[in-house]
Fold this sequence. Notes:
Elements: H1 5-17, H2 20-27, H3 31-45, E1 50-51, E2 57-58, H4 60-84, E3 90-94, H5 102-109, E4 115-119, H6 123-132, E5 137-140, E6 150-165, E7 185-188, H7 196-204, E8 210-212, H8 218-226, E9 231-236, E10 247-251, E11 256-266, H9 274-288, E12 298-299, H10 304-307
Parallel strand pairs: 3-4, 3-5, 7-8, 7-9, 11-12
Antiparallel strand pairs: 1-2, 5-11, 6-9, 6-10, 6-11
Helix pairs in contact: 1-2, 1-3, 1-4, 2-3, 5-9
Amino acid sequence: MDLDVAQVRAFVRVAEELHFGRAAGTLGISQQALSKRIARLESLLGVGLLRRGGGVSLTEAGRRFLAPARRTVAAADSAVAAVTGTDRPLRVDVWGHLYAPLRTLARVAGEAGELALGHGRDLPSVAAALLRGDIDGAFGRVHPPLPAGLAHRLVRLEPVDAVLSVDHPLAAEPVLSPDRLRGSVLWAPGPLDGLDFLHRFAERFGIRDTDAGVNLGLAHHLREVAADPRRFALLPADVLLPDVPGLRSVPLVEPTPLYAWSLLWRGEGGHPNLDALLDACAAQAGRGRWLEYDPARDWLPEPAAAEITPALVATGPRRFNATHLPQENARPTTVRRGSS
């Protein structure tokens, strides 16, 4: 039985969108043409893949077919890229914009050929774009739930500072333990249940007082912190603070929270320059001591902490799941803003 890749791709898009109109739009074809492709595929297979009454859903056969269908589409894309894709830029989306992901990606971008950068809204949106084949990779903080068919690799563990108003009672401290922030208000750039790292931090260190504004960018977020001596924000230590008066950044210790940056890609197939980007990240991790972690001194939220093993070093395999993580020597006690 020979499968038509266009028909398989049409099924995958509908299975992801659960809406014929949206799926047709992503493929640039009419809804009628999309329906015909899937009908022909179902006729060829001799089984229904989708239920169409009262909304779109997958049949049992459709659920079984989805994962291998995605692999079929990815393999076809990879075959085309092998002979025609070397001149196409590697398309990489980033998310977590308040924490400035391009600071890290910029340090390795020049070693991976030409990059075309996009700006995903959040992890679910970039994961969907990867599965559709709209982008080749993505960069940000990975956390569950993550759709099947995607692989990821930890790139950088970045110490997190507390940013306080200069009028905050703890602003004069040279360093702070996260526990000492109990009684202060964690100021978030949106609802805390949608911000995994901040939610886990508050839960782990007993921060019961939280509040949220509207995400209008880092400067706006920090102006709101500066205006209230009860508030604090959390930012990776290498983020350059905007020119907002009345702020102080204080390193967190005992333990030091670490923000985990990862590369995310489709598990099979992909752009030929993806390996070069992963290699560049591994090399920079070794040079910049990006993957240093001491469980006695540092804090990583699950599942990132569970993924770390000492089995591989930064020069290990180019593509490996995050359960096999490169690791370097222990990080120095003092972490300074702007260090590599």
